[in-house]
């Protein structure tokens, strides 16, 4: 195998036509160039240069090896440029994880701003529950993630840097004709006392175990949910609410995705809340840091 220093020396001699000129270009002595070219020729199995009265000239074998050397050296130069771009934050690929409702508006808005500023960075979005995203980050599969402490909190991990992004209120989605809907769409209006919903059927995602945020909120209000329907996807939840089959909690981040047939209301104080955070590996890419700053700006808006 030919080492890259030997290939660079071969290229310099071929370009200058002289051991002496190549030595000056690479800051070698002329004798060092002669020894290294002799060693390269031994490895190549024969002469690479014809020694002339004035200078040297590539042999056919030298021309063949020089062609391949140029290909290798050019690829290495491009690799160096690409790595410099990755570490500088403006090239490469950024793998971005987020839980479902963060992908409604928060993450897409930040990714759009990031793509405008860093068009040479390829973005690879990944959606999943927060616990799974943190596991994938620990395993080196994600460069940055948006996670929440719902429903069971976020575990401490010395290899993951968590930074609080926003404390998010959970709203209640009601069908437009509901007695507490107030006759207007969208979020706003007077807050609803959670105890006024004690007789409602609640729609929430299946829970693999532990207490849900709905159960916690209802417990603080002094009652347990009367009945629940287990629907995993948000489109399904919204459809059930629109049909008058129940009500559901909706994170504020998901409010832009709520269809016109539903009404969002605050639950007053103490409203159920969850904390949304960004997660970075121990040694993050500069591009990941840049995206975190844009996520913070988007959350502030």
Automatic annotation (TrEMBL):
Keyword DNA-binding in annotation: yes
Origin superkingdom: Bacteria
InterPro entries recorded: LysR_HTH_N (IPR000847), LysR_subst-bd (IPR005119), WH-like_DNA-bd_sf (IPR036388), WH_DNA-bd_sf (IPR036390)
Domain HTH lysR-type, residue spans: 2-59
Alphabetically ordered keywords of this record: DNA-binding, Transcription, Transcription regulation
Pfam family of the protein (one): LysR_substrate
Transmembrane segments: none
Keyword match Transcription regulation: yes
PANTHER family, per database record: LYSR SUBSTRATE-BINDING (PTHR30346:SF29), TRANSCRIPTIONAL DUAL REGULATOR HCAR-RELATED (PTHR30346)
Family: Belongs to the LysR transcriptional regulatory family.
Protein name: HTH lysR-type domain-containing protein
Native species: Streptosporangium pseudovulgare
């Amino acid at each position: 195998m030919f080492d890259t220093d030997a290939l660079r020396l071969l290229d310099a001699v071929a370009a200058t036509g002289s051991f002496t000129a190549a030595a000056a270009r690479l800051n070698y002595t002329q004798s060092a160039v002669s020894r290294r070219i002799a060693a390269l020729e031994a490895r190549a199995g024969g002469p690479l240069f014809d020694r002339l009265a004035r200078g040297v000239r590539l042999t056919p074998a030298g021309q063949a090896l020089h062609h391949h050397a140029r290909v290798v050296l050019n690829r290495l130069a491009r690799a160096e440029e690409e790595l410099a771009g990755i570490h500088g934050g403006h090239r490469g690929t950024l793998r971005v994880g987020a839980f479902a409702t963060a992908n409604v508006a928060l993450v897409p808005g930040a990714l759009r701003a990031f793509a405008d500023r860093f068009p040479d960075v390829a973005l690879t979005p990944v959606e999943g529950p927060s616990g799974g995203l943190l596991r994938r980050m620990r395993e080196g599969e994600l460069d940055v993630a948006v996670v929440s402490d719902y429903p069971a909190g976020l575990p401490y991990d010395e290899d993951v840097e968590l930074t609080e992004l926003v404390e998010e209120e959970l709203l209640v989605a009601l069908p437009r004709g509901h007695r507490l809907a107030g006759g207007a769409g969208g979020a706003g209006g007077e807050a609803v006392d959670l105890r006024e919903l004690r007789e409602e059927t609640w729609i929430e995602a299946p829970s693999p175990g532990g207490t849900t945020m709905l159960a916690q909120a209802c417990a603080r209000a002094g009652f347990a949910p009367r009945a629940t329907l287990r629907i995993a996807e948000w489109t399904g939840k919204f459809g059930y609410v629109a049909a008058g089959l129940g009500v559901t909690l909706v994170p504020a981040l998901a409010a832009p995705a709520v269809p016109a047939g539903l009404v969002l209301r605050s639950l007053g104080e103490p409203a159920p809340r969850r904390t949304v955070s960004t997660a970075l590996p121990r040694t993050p890419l500069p591009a990941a840091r840049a995206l975190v700053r844009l996520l913070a700006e988007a959350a502030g808006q």
